Amino acid sequence: MNLRRIFPPRVVAVWLVIYVALLLLPTVQGITGFPLYNLIFLYLVFFWITQATSWNILSGYSGYFSFGQAAFYGGGMYTTTILGSRYDWDLLPTLPVAALVGAGIAFLTGLLVFRLRKLSGEIFALFTLAVALGIGALVQNWRVLDGGRGIVLGQLDYPDLLGDTTEMLYYLGLTLAVIALLAAYVVQRSRFGAGLFAIRDDEKVAEAIGVPTFRYKMLIFTVSGALAAASGGLHAVQVGFISTDVGFGLRVAVFVILMSVVGGRRHWFGPLLGAVLIQTVTDRMAGAGYAEANQIVLAAVLIAATLFLRGGISARLVERPLPPVLGFVLGFVGTFVAGYPAITAAAWGMAVGLVVLFVPDRFLPQRRSWTRGGSAPGGDGDGSGAGTDDGIEDGHRIEGDEVIEPSDPASPTKETGR
Amino acid sequence: MSTTQTSTALLSCHGLVKTFGGLHAVDGVDFDLYEGEIRGLVGPNGSGKSTMINVLSGHLTLDDGQIRLDGVATERLQPHRIAELGMARTYQIPRPFGTLTVRENVEVAAHFGASEPQPDDVHDEAQRWLEFVGLAGVADELPDTITLHQRKLLELGRALATRPRVLFLDEVLAGLNPRELAHGIDLVRRIGSLGVSIVVVEHLMRVILDLCEHLTVLNFGKVIAQGEPEACLREDAVVKAYLGDAHA
Ligand SMILES: Nc1ncnc2c1ncn2[C@@H]1O[C@H](COP(=O)(O)OP(=O)(O)O)[C@@H](O)[C@H]1O
Ligand SMILES: [Mg+2]
Q: What residues in A contact B141, CB-CB < 8 Å?
């Protein structure tokens, strides 16, 4: 695979421009005084992009539907918290260690599920859930780690260059999101990604044409765990008070699944779209005082996405990108010029974009590629397709039972902890 | 062995045994395949043909026996290692990658497959095999929108894109209409002329007689005849197996 095909120069240029522009945003904020809240909001968007992308390169690409995101996220969170609060580490060096811890947990879990027992799709999902809950219980009961009282994470040292805490979270969150997206992008366009997609569709056939399925599953699981844990470590700073409920509860898993399914699991930018959309909706609903209604809205979005956009938003967007993008821009500019805050304007932009995305084609004859990516038939009897559709249904059920905290689902105890 | 070749076999199997519970699906089979050969593997339904392919490709682990592919012992190797050594197969019931287009199905095979030779460009390699099997026109369709015949051709194209030295065709020509069948037979011949050694599993005797210089006849997991097709088909055991009186 040659490098120019994976990284066409024009694509690299676009990535760089966006990254640099976003890096400059806090400085612009300092000069123009646009609301600081926007930076906090964007940090949460970056956080969710990283988590959802980490989930998707494993579960979306290889078809192994995981409910165990919290094992890695919580592992990273506790790593940074313990190193920072008990051993006085600076923040930055805790993040690679957190990544290593996440990679280690993923690697060991992978050995168990992929080597010792070849688990089918549903059992894999349950097993990953059990790993997350099991580690949570261990941390809960073992004094060396937590012991059930939770840990307050004080101010950690970091280079002055990164500004105040809000700015530092913004810069580091952005950088982690870019790393995660870059990983997802490179994997999708490489031989590795082709092998993972083959595993998702029919693992036995993939193996028979020469895909080293065990090695590939282990590798993507480990990378996914490392990304989730590094991001969880950083998020510990934002959360401030760490408990097993925050670290190992179901919320993170539910949200990364929701975001990836809505955004689309086949494309590297699917989880990005899902994360941006769902974090924006969640934030505006909370801001408007409709926090309780947020769950209903999210459920409706999920149902709409699974019924009408089986490949998620991204699959549809790839086919006809222009109308929804124009819809978004019009909606955004219109409301922004009318004097609404930027995030509210973005929410309206997304609403318009989504309507454009949904409506017109439904009156046209069914198009073949609607279902692409979302409906991996996978269940060839060998369970290797990891039952993607079952996963969606499971997502429904658990999502419905979850008490979702509105403004930041990852830190339900934030208000009590601070 | 009634083959006339004197060179050593490319694929050489001795005493292959595969049982399911008490059932001996493959029961002590010796089998040699030579470079450039097109071999017919026939036998009544349930005689163990597909099981043979499954153990040779590493899908199922062997209970006993040895397999040498160009001198390399493969009976303990994982299937992807066997594919790297140049073994490929098709499935009796096509198993395309359902969310990948026809082209992507072939491309992923070109990405992997035999470790030697590596394709210069995966996209070109895939295009070459799509044209070879006649699927270039539907390259961007999903597998569930093409015909069964096309899905069988996709099985072929995907197997070929792995650049095999030994290719197993499991009833890839079954269920085709006469025109498709003629196309299929021609295709197998052209694959043979590329230097690939082929094992053709087929029910239609006409196809076998058309394609193969040598036959191996299985019944209840055992080789009951091997050699020139006409001679094989005259043997008592074969006649009885095909007439349903296999217990004689
Ligand atoms: N996975 C399996 N489990 C149990 N029995 C099997 C399995 N595969 C094949 N068999 C049995 O092994 C015998 C040989 O089957 P097969 O190799 O498919 O025959 P053929 O391809 O010659 O029609 C049959 O009796 C079949 O029922
Ligand atoms: Mg068969």
A: 368
- Is residue A213 scored above 60 in pLDDT? yes
**Helix, strand, or coil (residue A311):** coil
Give the model's pLDDT for residue A414: 35
Q: How far apart are CA A75 and CA A139, in angstroms?
A: 9
* Residue labelled with tokens 């001198």: B71
Q: Is the pLDDT of residue A400 over 60?
A: no
To test the pocket of ligand 1, the residue of B20, B47, B52 to mutate (highest count of ligand atoms within 8 Å of its CB) is B20
Tokens linked to B205? 């005797």
* Lookup: tokens for A321: 């990108």
Summarize the confidence of residues A329-339 as an average pLDDT: 92
Q: CB neighbours of A410 closer than 8 A, spacing ≥ 6?
A: A47, A51, A73, A235, A239, A246, A251, A252, A255
- C-alpha B44 to ligand 2 mean position (Å): 9
Predicted-complex ipTM score: 0.92
Give residue for tokens 């101010």.
A155
d(CA A285, CA A387): 33
In B, minimum Cα distance to A373 occurs at B99
pLDDT of A5 reads 73
Q: Lowest mean pLDDT: which of A253-257, A330-334, B235-239?
A: B235-239
Average pLDDT, chain B: 90
Taking a C-beta distance cutoff of 8 angstroms, is the pair A301, A262 a contact? yes
Q: Range with the lowest mean pLDDT among A19-23, A66-70, A273-277, A290-294?
A: A290-294
Ligand 1 site, CB within 6 A: B 20, 23, 25, 43, 45-51
What is the model's pLDDT at position A26? 85
| pLDDT for the residue numbered A406 | 36
Given a contact cutoff of 8 angstroms between Cβ atoms, the answer to whether A145 and A138 are in contact is: yes
Select from A1, A210, A372 the Cβ nearest to the Cβ of B162.
A210
Instruction: Specify whether the CB–CB gap between A398 and A254 falls below 8 A.
Output: yes
| Backbone torsions φ then ψ of B122, nearest 5 degrees | -60, -40
Residue of B56, B60, B93, B99 to mutate for A, most A C-beta atoms under 10 A: B99
Please state, in angstroms and rounded to a whole number, the distance separating the CA atoms of residues A259 and B107. Answer: 30
Report the distance separating Cα A395 and Cα B219, nearest Å.
50
Q: How far is CA B172 from CA A241, A409, B58, B149, B229, in A?
A: 63, 53, 20, 9, 20
CA B215 – CA B207 distance, rounded (Å): 12
Probe ligand 1: pick from B19, B41, B50, max atoms within 8 Å of CB?
Answer: B50
Q: Closest residue (by CA) to atom 27 of ligand 1?
A: B46
> What ligand has the least distance to the C-alpha of B25?
1
**Cβ-based neighbour number of residue A294 at 10 Å:** 22
Closest residue on chain A to B78 (Cα): A207
Please tell me the predicted confidence (pLDDT) of residue A179: 94
**What is the token pair recorded at A270?**
């699917």
Mean pLDDT for the stretch of residues B108-130: 92
Q: Do strands B166-170 and B87-89 pair parallel, antiparallel, or not at all (unpaired)?
A: parallel
Task: Please report which confidence band the pLDDT of residue A412 belongs to, taking 50, 70 and 90 as the band edges.
Answer: very low
Residue of chain A whose alpha carbon sits nearest to that of B162: A209
Residue B68, exposed/middle/buried by CB under 10 A (0-12, 13-18, 19+)? middle
